[in-house]
Amino acid sequence: MVIFKFFSLLLLAFSFFHYPTSGEDLMHGCSHSGNYTTNDPYYTNLEELFSYLTNEAPTNGFTMASKGEGENRTHGLALCRGDLSPTDCKNCVVHASNDILTFCPNNKGGIVMHENCTVRYSNHDFFDETMNNVLLCIQSSKNVNGSDPIIVIQFSQRIQDFLSKVTEEAVLNPKMYASGKSEIDEFHTAYGLAQCSRDLSRLACNKCLTQSVAFVAHPDCGEGKEGVKVYSEICRVRYELKPFVNDKHIPLPPTSYDAISPQPQPVASSHCLDASVVIVVMGFLSQLLSYNS
């Protein structure tokens, strides 16, 4: 069952839709910037663009390009999660490119966010653009054990501290990606990642990730949850209480935190199959969607 609760909706350059029950499509959006036909040069340029993104993205997990001239010029990028193999990256970009044409037929702009990659195109040059960033929060339905609000706040603060360290590593990494793990307390080990789209400046990357990490512990997102993903068009952060990435975790400096739970807790699902989704636009809560799979 899907339950919608609407708050203040803001006018966006994209109309966003999302299908959280899907294992692949986290969110997609279609632009209001115009349409094309299959006979238009824009369509030919778009086909060339998707072919280029599919072939080039697997090399290092990211690519961007522009094809065509004048009003038929199209811009696009593909970003894969930093721990993907070239094969998995290419497969994701192929699927996302096909999805975006299905979701946004004959539209001159669109974006698809999958768990493993993001593909975006537009007739507007959006590279290094940070305006109207939409935050998608996917939270585990499981809470950290303990009804004491102090325990919940303490756990969330330690998660924020951990993700802040991962964020610092990501901003300094040429691939703008980092993952890590940290002992949150005697019974909990957190695993996390942070990543930015590589068309961003380091300053813009840091700003996006910092906002996302702050939102992780927000009551409307992930406060006290066993797993949280905060994704946007330009950056993403995530933590779970069990490993979920394919690269080698480099432990961050250990903490001296005391235990905040009397018993070991079951880990959250790495796919957050039983979860809630929150969408925030420029810091304002716009829509809350919750579901059970």
Automatic annotation (TrEMBL):
Family in the record: Belongs to the cysteine-rich repeat secretory protein family.
Chief location bin: secreted
Record localization: Secreted
Protein name stated in the entry: Putative Gnk2-like domain-containing protein
Signal peptide as annotated in the record: 1-23
Source species taxonomy: Eukaryota, Viridiplantae, Streptophyta, Embryophyta, Tracheophyta
Xref: InterPro entries: CRR_secretory_protein, GNK2, GNK2_sf
Residues annotated as transmembrane: none
Entry keyword Transmembrane helix: no
Organism from which the protein derives: Lupinus albus (White lupine)
Keyword vocabulary terms for this entry: Repeat, Secreted, Signal
A cellular component annotation (GO) from this entry: extracellular region
Keyword Repeat: yes
The Gnk2-homologous domain, residue ranges: 24-126, 137-244
